Amino acid sequence: MSGKITVFISSVTSSMEVRKHQMKIQDVLSGAKIDHEVVDVSANKEDLSRMRDIVGDSHALAPQIVNGDNYCGNYEAFDEAVENKTLKEFLKL
C-alpha cells in the first residue's frame, strides 16, 4: 500500500550542492509524472520533526524522500535508483 510521495526540502540551505539535489529530485519526479508534494522543513519545525521521525534519525537533513510514512531514502539513494532505472521500486510504487 502506498501513500503520497513527499520530498522534504530546506529552502534555507547555503549549500549549492543541496539546492541542486533538491531541484533534481523535483525535476525527475515531475518529468516522470509521479505525483508528489514538496514540504519545506525550514518553514515549520513540526515538518522537520515529522521528517526525522520517518527517517529514524534525529539529525537527518533535507532532502529526504518518503512514501506516506515509509522512508524511501536520501538524495544519494534516489540518484542511484534513477541511474539503475529502479525509481518506482525505490519510491515503493
TrEMBL record:
It holds the Pfam family SH3BGR. SUPFAM superfamilies: Thioredoxin-like. GO terms for cellular component: cytoplasm. InterPro entries: Glut_rich_SH3-bd, SH3BGR, Thioredoxin-like_sf. Belongs to the SH3BGR family. This is SH3 domain-binding glutamic acid-rich-like protein. It comes from Candidula unifasciata.
